[in-house]
Amino acid sequence: MTFAKTILAAALVAATPFAAAQPALAQMRALSDPVVPHPDPESLFTSDDPVLHRNKQAALHIQRNLLKCGEWSRAGEWLTDAYIQHNPVAASGLEGVIYYFTQVANVQPLEPCPALSAEDGNGVVAVMAEGDYVTILTRRIVPYVQGDMSDTYTTTWFDTWRFVDGKADEHWDPATLPGTPAPAPEAAAEAAMTPEQVAQRVADDNALHELMWKYDRALDRFQPDAYAALFTEDGSFLGTSGRDNLRDMIAAFADAEGGPPNMQHASTNHWIEYTGPDSAKIHYYWQTYALGGEGTPPSLIAAGNGVDDVVRQDGQWLFQTRNVTPTVEEE
Predict the structure, then answer these.
(1) Residues 272/21, Cβ–Cβ less than 8 Å
(2) What pTM, to 2 d.p., does this model score?
(3) Alpha carbon of 287 to those of 237, 248, 268, 330: distances in Å?
(4) What domains lie within the chain, and their CATH numbers?
(5) Residues 6+ apart with CB under 8 A from 131
């Protein structure tokens, strides 16, 4: 076999068994549907119950006149003097909140003050009222951490007020101190999982472990049928697509004059990035070694890193693409 063919064979890398993996933070994208504001948000601030109606109307003024239009000179109409805050960057008290918005944030009144709209950046999604409490759910538009700041996703913010005699006396929202790290995505996701979902994740990890091991063994032993069966029907590797073509690729090495090269593959630094319930990316570094005869140490003939796309079809995890030469964007 020529040296060029040996290098090509070396590029057919596979991962050995790997431990539980961490997500690829730089690659994470929002999986959720976008948050869509209500088409007529002010219609949500009414109730047949007179007390709830009074409280919801006061919440409407806070959302529209104060937060949207900046009419903080009127804050005493809808906030008590005590105005107890549970936002860690805001002090309690009516005077304090007015000072913050007018002197620190330098918010200027918007005249005339328009009604709330579905086009508002923090458009209202829903309003709930019970007893002395009113909660407003709103859209929040967030830029991705890396790249163009115009590249954004949406999530949901909430504000909850407790009302006393028609004025907000206490306030809660999910704000944190600047620089406070969010829970690791994997930890947060696992914390939100049901026991059944945790069990499924463990089963998926094991299935992907088995898939990578079967690939490694089929490649090192140059077994065409076993190798091709690990891909989807349209699966691909370095420009070779479809199971039949993948099978022929491995068969060509197995049938080469002098037999296939004696090689073994190793990989390190793996993590699994789940991109959906039935899809994932597997990231890794790889090395390929030529195995010498007795008394001859292995020699490194190729190394790199890879990003493989895998999907679950009919209950079985399969490779959709194997990419052992990813670009920076793909990594």
Answers:
(1) yes
(2) 0.50
(3) 17, 24, 9, 19
(4) 3-22+191-323 (3.10.450.50), 41-180 (3.10.450.50)
(5) none
Helix (H, G, I), strand (E, B) or coil at 53: helix
The pLDDT-based confidence of 1 (bands split at 50, 70, 90) is: very low
Neighbours of 119 (CB within 10 A): 7
Cα–Cα distance measured from residue 266 to residue 269, given in angstroms and rounded to the nearest whole number: 11
Residue 88 is encoded by which pair of tokens? Answer: 């860690």
298 prior amide bond cis, ω within 30: no
Q: Which of 32, 282, 270 is nearest to 140 (CA)?
A: 32
How do residues 125-178 score in pLDDT, each as one tens digit? Answer: 999 999 999 999 999 998 876 555 568 899 999 999 999 999 999 999 998 876
Transcribe 114-162 into DSSP letters: PPP-TTSTT-EEEEEEETTEEEEEEEEEEE-SSS-TT-EEEEEEEEEEE
Tokens of 265: 């593959």
| Contact call for residues 273 and 253 (beta carbons, < 8 A) | no
DSSP symbol at 273: E
CA distance 160 to 173: 7
Q: How many H-runs (helices) and E-runs (strands) does the chain carry?
A: 7, 11
Is residue 326 within 8 A of residue 307, CB to CB? The reply is: yes
Tokens of 270: 């793996």
Pairing of strands 240-241, 316-323: unpaired
Q: Which 3 state secondary structure label does DSSP give 28?
A: coil
Q: What is the mean pLDDT of residues 229-238?
A: 94
Q: How confident is the model at residue 188, as a pLDDT?
A: 56
Q: How long a stretch of residues is the chain?
A: 331
> Is residue 143 reached through a cis peptide bond, with omega within 30 degrees of 0 on the bond before it?
no
Residue 179 has pLDDT above 70, yes or no: no
Q: What letter does residue 184 receive in the DSSP assignment?
A: P
> How many other β-carbons are positioned within 10 Å of the β-carbon of residue 17?
11
In angstroms and rounded to an integer, the radius of gyration of the C-alpha atoms of the chain is 29
Position 311 scores a pLDDT of: 96
